[in-house]
Records
---
Amino acid sequence: MDDKAYKKAFRKHMKNKRPPADHQWSPFRAAEKRYKARFPPPDLRDVLDLSRIESGGKSVGKNVDFSNELKGNAHAVHTRPIRLRCEGPKSRCAYVVPQIPGLVILPEYLAHDEQRSLIRWSLSSQARAPNDTNLDIHYHLPAEGLWNIHTSAQVEERTSNNRSSSKYIIEPKRPTGPEPPDYPPEGPRPLIDNIPVEPSNFDTVDTQAKPPLPPSSHLPPIFASKLLLKLRWANIGYFYHWGTKTYDFTKPKAEYPHELRKICKDVVASIDWQQVWDGVDDEEWGEEGPDWEQWPETYEPDAGIVNFYQPKDTLCGHVDRSEVCATSPLVSISLGNAAIFLIGGLTRSVEPIPILLRSGDIIVMSGPGCRRAYHGVPRILENTLPMHLRSASAGEDDWQPFAEYLQTTRINVNVRQVFPSGFDPLARPGTV
């Protein structure tokens, strides 16, 4: 760090160190501030890192690249191992956190080739029409997708030294009608306090107005390669309306990706849910009681989002309230650079657990408490891309653009089930 950057980081650190006397951060907010800090860098000794758990003298993290000296603490939080019900390389342990019933962590679940396949899918197939992204509001995106335009531009640059072709410039949309407020395509998402969706109020929430956000009126044309770094999310399955934090069922549901569906269903089927919920009180499940025994058969992912994080991006602490099915597993897949994930309780007053998530790790949030727990991502850990994603393997001559993009990127594939088994979203009170 040069002298100027050091002084800037130090000033910001001292400013953040002295909160107003009348301001008290909640435990969750305090943890976010701690791990967001750029100076000094966050101390990972209190961050749970299951890649460093040893069993029988052998490290669970035998396939993890530790060359970047990224070290958490395998014993920062009490965990309990459970054996996965699958054969082959994935036949080892997952871990439950008794402090948060329903939370299951599967370190290194995805093999290297599976990670690369999902990364390819995320960028070249999912972040394009008919799936909405955060950029569709503001730009006329090409039908073939931003990533594919970006890689075509790279090929042309190498072969013809043409770096200014107009066909690789993305034009912004222009608002119609009265001058709208400016909605930037990047930066923190505004916080919206939506009510929890459940079968009894689904009709009310479903008929809530979900107007499209207007495009910004101040955006210039931009090269595809630069716009790619502003990509933040791509929709999966049912369309999610960010303005109201509800699903918009007036829009057609996109076909669910077969590979992703299989991975998530395999994850849910491989977990011994009896071990997960053994000894946990059933009272929070409501009148109908727990339904985890049926998950291996009834779990069906139908919505989700691919998140694309750059180094300074964060995901503020929030609660997922948009799914009618408020207990079935949410499957979250980490790819690329590592991140710190926080998960607490039903309010921000609960001290969150910090978890180090590396490429290939999967976490599953399930049950009434865990699915409605506050969680967030306060920090992307720079320069933590594992070696197996940095260069092409045999037969992958086209991997280099992915490796370059991943140098600064974390991808998170977040998969949900909106409706519980047997729930008919088309049924309305008073209809036949």
---
Amino acid sequence: MSEGNTAFTTGSSEPNKSTGQYHSVKGNIVEAIGNTTGATSWQQSGREERAAGEAEINTAKAKGYAEGAGDRLTGKKDSIVGAVTSDKQQQMSGNVQQDKGQTKQDMNRWS
């Protein structure tokens, strides 16, 4: 059954896609058991845990997407500054950070 969800399902202040997925699946299983046995407390607990897991997944995706946007912006700035100042190292570092940010955003897009 579900523990109290005061923060995220992990009990930490940071959202996590893996633990969110775990709790979403666990909630589905608990709800299915409740449906099969007619135990309304299990049905309710399962629905709540699944909803909390889905919320944690979505929060983690939003956080990852925003971090990716920040990396892209910082990378773009560093790349431009490097190009203007003829600092090839800074320019390359900025390009790498931009690519990292793009990848992070791609990994956290909603389907």
---
Amino acid sequence: MSLPKHLVLTLAFLCHPKLIQTTAAFSTSSPGGESFNSNRKNISNGSNSKPDRYISAAQRARREEEQRRKERIDEVVPGKTSAIPGAKDFEINIQRTEMEWNVQASGEMRMVKELTAKGMEALRMLKLEEADKAFDSLYEIKPNAYCWQAGIVKFYMGDYRAAADCFTKNAQWYESKFCQVATEERIWRLACELKIKMQSKKNRSVMDATSALPPMRDPDLFSQKETRKVIRIAHELFTASLENNVSAMVLARAKLRSICGQYDSDNKDEVSLVKTDKKMWRLYSWYYLGLHYDATGDENASKDCIKMALRQCVSGNSSDIIQSLPMLHMARRDWFDDDDFEEDDGFLYSNNHEEIKAGLDWDASGNNALSGTSSVVSSSNVREFIEKSVSTMKLAELQNELKRRGVKSTGSKSVLMDRLRQVLLEDAGLKDSSSDEPQSY
């Protein structure tokens, strides 16, 4: 079969060598000088790159900026090189900076600094009258000064209303300035309120003794929450006491007692636990437990806890005020004697030192976890304390606490005790007492 003549001529023309070379050269080069095959490859691979003549001015500027960043990536090192060519960073010298500040500060600012240092030194030396005089002079010069330790002086001098006013002002100043909850100031304000209520009960006053105190506004919802574990639990304890929330108070107290561990003795292994308390959680737990017992009128329990807090203090002149507070409390209450520690039989402390160390890891995020990792807390300590606290509650208290939590509050006293105990153990993240396995958090 023969092909038509015109088809044979067309095939011969297309297969001519010179025509093939010309077509190949045209396919590899576009009129604008761009590679045609590379463009086809970019399109097939989904690339967004375009020839310069097809991009907008904004895209071209972005491309040039990315190229400049790649070229300058090794030129500037944050914290080492200066943004100004030829300039040098200032040397970090605290003493020199402080000296320059003293030279530039006004006479009023220098006086504020001197009075603050004088009051703090007198407080550490337990000279409350001297400290109170210095802090009063400070607030005369600068009424809005931030010095919440002045409230501690007022508290231990027995002027609870002036102390509450001082803590309120300092808390509001701190929270408005740093957008963080002033938890310690709020704890001390609650302690003042509890003390005033205790005094009104002794004097059989019918009027609300705390009505004359300055109002304490709730913290801003957008403020950063308290992340210090012991401080957060201590605030829950004082708040529950003021709100007469017995079950929450029992739970918070059990958490703090679990962090405290066992009563210290002359055993070297037990004394060595103080060295592991680098964040002073045991010190804070013992002290705030003692302060709470003191504010609620339980002198014996407060005495034991404050003595234990005193044992956690380091020797020497520490800059942290918490190291001086147990000694201050003992001195003002005149508790220095040779009495032995009276261990609480209702709260069994573990002799397992690994469990005690694990008890130093409560997490700020929730129930009992102290660190972000899973840890095993000595659940028997918390369970024993909860069971003892529930067993001492009256029938009306059991009913009120169950109603507060939306749980059925009818039945015999033993039934209500079991019901509340189960609720508190669940809130603590613990298993039922029938299970002897420690709870992992």
---
Amino acid sequence: MASTLFRTIRLHSFFIHPTALFRRRNGFLYCTMKSSQTQTATQEKQQPPKVKVPQHAQSKALDKIARDYEAIIGIETHVQLSTLTKAFCSCPYNYGSQPNTSICPICVGLPGALPVLNSKVIESAVKLGLALNCKLFLNSKFNRKQYVYPDLPKGYQISQFDIPIATGGCIDLDLPLEFGGGHRKFGITRVDLNRAGVPLLEIVSEPDMRTGIEAAEYAAELQRVVRHLRISNGNMQEGSLRCDVNVSIRPLGQLEFGTKVEIKNLNSFSSINQAIDFEISRQVLLHGDQIVQETRLWEEGAQKTVTMREKEGLSDYQYFPEPDLPEVILSQEYVDSICNSLPELPEMKRRRNEKMGLSMQDVAEYFDATISSGADIKLAANWIMGDIAAYMKNEKLSINEIKLTPQELAELIASIKGGTISGKIGKEILFELLAKGGTVKGLIEEKDLIQAS
């Protein structure tokens, strides 16, 4: 199991119909958007030194880093929220809709059009901040971030800068056994909200990860969390969840970070893993003054990173407080009400299942479905790990092959607990349900098994 520390969660929003590009500055999280045409034009203008990393060289480089170097990896994750309307206006958003069909004067930045913050965006940010164990700022604010792109008609983006909505959290996750397993803690910096379109939360991790597989598992756990909270569908293929990774290397024992390189818009877990491993290898071969602080893209077909642009500085964005939006002020009662409504999170389920011996994934899912149907947690665990497990062992069946559904197990437990039938009769019914299926109520009526009061 591993934990990730978080710096911040901040609020952002997409533009009208862009491709998402994000950047992090000084440990904070920001969002920008570019069209695919802009990306291509930017790439063509840049002529950095190109380094090819053959497969055998990459393997040697990874072996070398294990001996002599340490990789430092941080991730900016961008989560598009599943709100009915955009962040600052009432325009709807539907994935795949035609360009410029859901826009208004606020979207295009016409003079006199004032933004109005969508309250659901704040609610989603608070939910995620609490789920990631962050400290919430009851008072936060928006800023204008200045830059010019063809798909940004205002010439600025409404974002958060110095006061995010949440900061200083952590996330626990389980690393695959083939990659060492065990428990680690990765940090989260902050979560924030963005500009004139679809609302976006950005989560910045601390530079706690050391391998591509750790980064991929971290992103997968964030996807599970946002889906569980129902604040985003987390579909990476639609751009609802994307990752920018920051990679640098340093000699083992050195405290100072090396030159950071950012890889933009990774939209699959395998891409995160492969892009990081490639970039580590590239930097090992270049280690020294040849590594340039820049933004790179991952080319899936060629299995390599390529230069996109050199990094900008904070001064280029000329941040200042957003004059058209008031501060975001949260009451403690509001935060507490959201906290009390949070569902059991994936990590909490895993810890609970481990304590009860429900470590196998299919058994854990069966158990979750049983208690979701109203069964007592302790009784459900006892039945599954006792009589049901013994039956599966004797019959050489998996939990997915037995005829008893989680819903009927919950009904059986409720019938015993409520005194309708005795525990002894319950066991008799159990084995018939396991072998033949059917319903608890049907068997009780058919065999006239109701317990006399």
